[in-house]
Amino acid sequence: MATRPGTDLAVRVRGLRKSYGAATVLDGVDLDIRRGEFFVLLGPSGTGKTTLLRTLAGLEAPDGGEVLVPARRTTVYQEPRLVQARRVLSNVTIGQPRGAATRAAGARALAEVGLADKVRAWPATLSGGEAQRAALARALVRDPELLLLDEPFAALDALTRLHMQDLVADLCARHRPAVLLVTHDVDEAVRLADRVAVLRRGRFSVDRRIVLDHPRDRNNPAVLDYRRDFLGELGVSSTR
Amino acid sequence: MTVSSGPSPAAPPFAEAAPTGPRPAPPGLERPVHLGSRPRNPLLSLAVRVSIPLLLVGLWWWGSIAGFVDPRILSSPPAVLTALRELIATGQLAEFLAASFGRAALGVTVGVGAGLLLGIMSGLTALGEELVDPSMQIVRAVPFLALVPLFISWFGVDETFKVVLIAVAAVAPMYAYTYVGVRGVDRKVLEAARGFGLRGARLALGVIIPSALPSILMALRICMTISLTGLIAAEQIGTTAGIGYLVTLAQQYFRTDYMVLCIVLYAVIGLLIDAAIRLLERVLMPWRAHVAAR
Question: How does the protein associate with the membrane (chain B) (predicted)?
Answer without folding.
Answer: Multi-pass membrane protein
